[in-house]
Amino acid sequence: MTDRTQTTIDTHLRHGDHVDSIESVDIVFRAQRKLSFTYGAIFFGVTLAIPAASVWWPTWYATPIWGGFTLNYLFVSLLYFVFLWSMAWMYSKQADALDSSLEHMADAITAQQSDTDEEG
Amino acid sequence: MNAIAITLVVVLITFTIALSIFSRRFTRTTADFYLAGRKVGSFSNASAISGDYLSAASFLGVAGAVYASGLDGVWYAAGFAGGFMVVVLFIASALRRFGEYTVADFAFGRFGSHRIRLITVVAVLLTSLFYMAPQMFGAGSTWQVLVGTGILGMDPYTSGVVVVTAIMAFYVGVGGMKGTTLNQIFQFWWLWFAMFLVVVFAFGNGFNYPEALAKASTGAIVNTKALTAKELTTPDAKTGKTQLDAAKSIMTPEEFTKVEAAVAANDPKAKIPVALPSKNKLHELRTMLFAEPGHRYNSFDQFSMVLALVLGTAGLPHILNRYYTNPSGAAARRSTFWVLIFIGTFYILAPIAGLAGVSFIKDYLANGGTIAAANVHGLLVKPDQIMPTLGSILGGQWLMGVVAAGAFAAMFSTIGGLLIAAASAIGHDVYEKYVDPNASEKKRVMVGKLSVLAFALIAMGIGLGIPYFGLDQAYPALIAMMVTWAFSVGASAFVPMLLTGIWWKGTTERGATAGIAVGLFSAIAIIFLNIFQQLGMVGKEGILGFFGALTFPVLFTFPLGLLTIIIVSKLDKKLPDNVDQIWMRIHGTASERHEKQHGLDKVGSLLGTKKA
Questions:
Q1: Smallest CA–CA separation between A113 and chain B, in Å?
Q2: Inter-chain contact A73–B74, Cβ cutoff 8 Å?
Q3: Is residue A112 part of a domain?
Q4: Cα separation of B572 and B565, whole Å?
Q5: pLDDT tens, residue by residue, B70-80
Q6: Looking at chain B from residue 426 to 445, which residues have their Cβ under 8 Å from any Cβ of chain A?
Q7: Can you tell me the ipTM of this complex?
């Protein structure tokens, strides 16, 4: 989406007073990628561990632990959702904090680069 | 015919139409029509996304799957919810930051070619049609159960499909995204409340979750089927035994006498309900208990089913389009968190309702109670009828009415989202970009409305074609199966392109286009092979037989699409000239900082924009 305030040159993208440079965006991207893929690895690890345990771990799928609940049934019907909520909550908070901290860094890098360009 | 249920459904429909007419005054521009002005708050958007997502398959199908299959059915609930983690971690905020209107816009903006925009449009339309088919089938089937009679000389199934199509085309065409959003919010909370009420009534009637689960797991799961006399008496080629023999081993002498009488009548069209023993497909030597895995899936399908559900959510265009209605990337993440809370609580309740069905219906019938739904051996023949049946037993006609209206609410909210997605693809991605780029705003909105009508008519044709081609007879749980197909098509066509487009700068236009095409058409080819195999047109031998037997093609087609993108991009190496600018649009925050500074990131009213 473009708006009236947006201007672009080869390595910068300006919105009003705020500028993204490819260097600052690269820092944001790398930090965001690390965060997303770390959480993604945990999510897929846990999600695929459930069918794996259902195939190979009898204690998991065949031993009642609370009434008729096996570990398998309890996790899939209740605890998996708590796991999803916790993951989504923590990830959103960390991603927001990351955005916030990188905003200042991006502005600083952009300002520094502008100074360098002017000197050059 | 249930007068209270029909009254509540009519009230729901009337309210839905009134809301659309009311919101009409706020739909003036294409941004209003397709994106509700991009100012939908996290809570409202989360409610609307949840309504968009929870279809008849979730409302009727999940409880039914648990009722029929125990733990393997519960996986549907967990998998449907888990899909949103992929959305929040990898797609939501980047998609919103990039802006635009549709997934096709993203593909065009990211890779810069008309070719990729057009193939994405084709993929959006095909995925939406695959997802629309079970909604249409659900509309016809629910009408059959709820109303039982046809209108204007049509049979009940046709009446359901035609009436729901007409209502949906009207309310989406009139209300646009704002009307649809308002309706989806209302419809989601209605169906959530209906599920909640059923579970509350179950606990109020003495239901105890761990005890009921223990009781349901004391013996093997019993399957129910409705078969013709010929199907019952034809011996199996390997064992030489008939389905009638198997039924005799399960059913009581009184029940079996009725089956024998029906077989003796030898009506070739009559379907005879029978109870049959179940097999554990995962641990073949174990009895198939309710609380254990293996009723539906073998070890291969345990994994592929999870992946199909988890990856499929991120490939549904009507869900992805909703992310453009958020005011910022952070709001898109917050919306997804709330979606997980809303649908998570719903999916915790649905398996409880399924188990409550096991607990209550058998006792109710044993004590002389009668129900409208076909049953045998104390079990429903069609598990998808568990929700209205349970509502009727636990809370009488009023609760059944609330549940019936909930089923229609689930269908309406999903069909509404699909119609908007399809209209965006035709009206915005094709008409506005290629047919008449200089069209006035009024004309663009009109084309959007006509697109809604055209797509609704195509969907109606598919809905009517399902029984004509015998698909409802070929698949015992057709709604769940068709939803899984839509997930597979979306996951194979879009998710590899979105993941690489957002996270790998080296993705090229040729790579992404090839990946979409390979993922899309390989998934569709395997699905049709499966259909042809079920209809007896393709054998079970050879390579075609192997692929035709795949329940979830996504385990092959997703990696195939992803690998295609990586290999073609590596060979091609031709990145867009402005790749740095594109990268700054996806991952940069200057736009959001600017909006924050000037207060432009605030959520607007769904009922209109404030004048300056």
A1: 16
A2: yes
A3: no
A4: 10
A5: 999 999 999 99
A6: none
A7: 0.88
